[in-house]
Every structure is written in C-alpha cells, then in structure tokens.
Amino acid sequence: MQQWAGRALHGSLAYGRSECRLVIRGHDLVAVLPDGQELQLPFRGIRFRRQGTAAKELVFDGGVDGSLVLTSTEESLLAALVALQLPDLDAAMAHHRSKARRGFMRRFIWPAVALALLFVVAPVLLVGPTTRLVMAAIPASADEALGRAALPSAVAEIAPGDASSIADPAIVGPVQRLVARLFAGGPPSPFHFDVRVYNSKVMNAFALPGGPIVVTTELLKHAHGADEVAGVIAHEMAHVAERHGMRQILQRMGFWVLAAALLGDVSGAMSAAVGAAGELTGLGFSRSMERDADELAVKRMRAAGMDSRALARFLEEASGQSVGSSERMPRFLSTHPVTTERVARINSLAGEAAHSRADDADWQALKARLD
Questions:
Q1: Surface-to-core class of residue 10, CB atoms within 10 Å of its CB (0-12 exposed, 13-18 middle, 19+ buried)
Q2: CA distances from 139 to 27, 178, 183, 242, 248 (A)
Q3: DSSP count for the chain of H helices, then E strands
C-alpha cells in the first residue's frame, strides 16, 4: 500500500499536531500516527487547498466535524486522489483553482494593469492638485537632502576644478547679511538659507531645494548695487520656499515617484527624488514658477525695505548684454528667460513707492575686495 509523509492536526493530539503517514483506504484518507493510532478523513465532503511557500503544501480537511486537517508536500498523493475521480474532491479542486485564479488576478494582473495606466497618466497627474497632494506627503527634510545631493554637480558647472567656496568675510559677509535681511522680511519658512560665494567667471546665482544658495563672484562684479544682488537672491529664495525644485524632480520622475507616494512608500518617493538630484541643474523652471518667484521676490524685497525694482533692472541689463551672443548668455538667464513682459510685470508689482536702499558701505567694501 502506497504511503505518503504528512502531518495531522487534531484536538485529540498532543500539542494539536503530529507527524504521520498518509494512506488511501476505501473511502477515507487515513493518517497513521507513530503510535499506530489512525485518524480517518472521509472523501465525502472533503475540502482541498494549497498553502505555504510556492503553495507546495497540500491541505485536506472536512470530515464529520471538520476538525481534522491532513497535510502533505508530496504531489503524488494529489495525483493518486485525482485518479480516484472522487466527486467531492473534484469539486473542491475546481473551487480552489477558481479561487487561485481570482487571487492571481487580484495580486498580480490588476496591479500590473493599474501601474501600466499610471505610467501613461503620471505626467498628467503630476501637475496641479495632484502634485500638491504628493508634495504634502513629502517632508521638508527631503528638499534638504535633495539640495545637498545636487550641490556638488551644481558647483562643478560654475567652478570646475574648484569646489571650495570663498571664506573671505569681506566678500561673504555682505551677501550673508543680505540673505538674513531678506529672510527676516519674508514669511515663515522651514528652510535654512545657507549662502556660499564661489570664485567663477560664470555669472550666476541659484538656490537649491532645502536652502543652499550659491552666488558667483562674476554676478557680484556685474551687479550695480546690493539691491540688484538682493533681488536675484530673493527670487531664488522664492523657488526654495515654493519647493519648485522638488516639484520639477517629481514631474521629471513622474511614474515612479507617483507610484511610490500612492502606495504609501514616502521614503521610496524621497529616495527616487534624491537619486535624480543631478538633473536639477539642467532643468529650467516653468513660466508660472518664474512668475510666482518674481512676485514673491518683490514682496520680500519690499518687506525688507529694499528697492523692489532692482531685480527688473538687473535682468534687463544682463539680457541686453547677451543679445546677439548666445555663448555669452549668463547662466542665470539661460534657466530664467527674460522677456519685456516679465520685466514690465516686475516693475508693475514693485510700484512707484520709494524704498531705503541696502547698506551701500557694505557693498562698496565688497566691490573693492573683488577688484
């Protein structure tokens, strides 16, 4: 008589279970225990399912009171039972196969279909209200991590071969004081604005997500006053406050970040965003982002008691110098395009009211050190 290794589970057994040998006898599946005791599971009303790793464990139960469960990992046992063509077992197996198919669809097919659809619609969903929902799930600390990750590549573009910032207090001090004054005049922010000045022939200033601000000596040399530098920095601070850099990365990553966020994997969304930090320096902001940053910069300049028209003057003059020579176009303008409409809008927002200027003595000392 053929036997199969198995296990019996029943309330009458010590610890509720015991190893056994399974045999087919008459109309029963019989468990022969090590002490010779036998437990019978009638074929009539028998139920079947699979469980365990890779569904390798065969499980039979039913019987008179349904309390006896017999299991085995030997597929030949199932083959022998199928060969008997037992109506109740055939029905139980058909039910199991149907349930398994539904489970497979639920666990694999439908999620795959949903992810495929998400891949198609992610670029559309990651704008407007949906972007705000995803952004709300990502803490400000993610912006800071993104900014730290992007800083080396951003600095390498403006100061190749010289990754160290200037430490001279006569140069850095006035710029730091401008940032402190702008920060004090603006709305509350979870970000700390850490300004660094780099010796570079590239005229640029930018703020990375989380608050690192980079200003080049070429921009400081080009500006006609501290208010113009403050206007540029105020504009960049607005990009940080509005989390424009993080939004750009989210929209760039699209499907993967949205999928992670919607599945509740916030850390996964953060990791994906930080992993794409190197792309930040090549991304320009949308027109709506630039408009928002201009408006917030004017408000911050006015609140700080600075000339709120200074940003428009700087942009107009810098763009005028680059006309007809795309090679000399300042990096700041390549990622912040200047139009007549934009300059006019900044001037309109700034109004005609006179404002006190930034500390000219501080600025003259800085310019003297750069000469």
A1: middle
A2: 64, 27, 21, 13, 16
A3: 16, 10
Across the range 24-35, mean pLDDT stands at: 93
Q: Which pair of tokens denotes residue 100?
A: 């398994």
Q: Give the pLDDT confidence of 323-355 residue by residue, as tens digits.
A: 444 444 455 555 556 678 888 999 999 886 555
Q: What is the pLDDT of residues 1-18, one digit of tens each?
A: 799 999 999 988 988 899
AA letter at 350? A
Q: Residue 85: pLDDT band by 50, 70, 90 thresholds?
A: confident
What's the first-to-final CA gap in the chain, in angstroms? 102
Report the interhelical angle of 129-137 vs 255-262 (nearest 10°).
Answer: 60
> What count of other Cβ atoms lies within 10 Å of the Cβ of residue 131?
17
Q: What are the φ and ψ backbone dihedral angles of 294, each rounded to 5 degrees?
A: -60, -45
Q: How far is 215 from 198, CA to CA, in rounded Å?
A: 6
Please choose, from the candidates 294, 303, 364, 298, the residue with its C-alpha nearest in 3D space to the C-alpha of residue 181: 303
Neighbouring CB atoms inside 10 A of 121's CB total 13
pLDDT per residue as tens digits for the range 37-63: 999 999 888 888 888 777 789 999 875
Range name among 2-16, 89-103, 219-233, 241-255 with the lowest pLDDT average: 89-103
How far apart CA 366 and CA 97 sit, in angstroms, is: 79
Spatial distance between the Cα atoms of 274 and 105, rounded to a whole number of angstroms: 34
Q: Which residue has the tokens 């600095």?
A: 155
What pLDDT is attached to residue 269? 52
* pLDDT > 90? residue 33: yes
Q: Minimal CA–CA distance to 306: which of 177, 169, 173?
A: 177
On whether the CB atoms of residues 90 and 34 are closer than 8 A, the answer is no
Long-range contacts made by residues 118-125, C-beta under 8 angstroms, separation at least 24?
Answer: 118/255, 118/258, 118/259, 118/262, 119/255, 122/254, 122/255, 122/258, 122/259, 123/251, 123/254, 125/258
CB 222 within 8 A of CB 202: no
Cβ atoms of 58 and 73 within 8 Å: the answer is yes
Q: Hey, what amino acid is at 296?
A: L
Cα dihedral 212, 215, 216, 219, rounded to 10, equals: 160
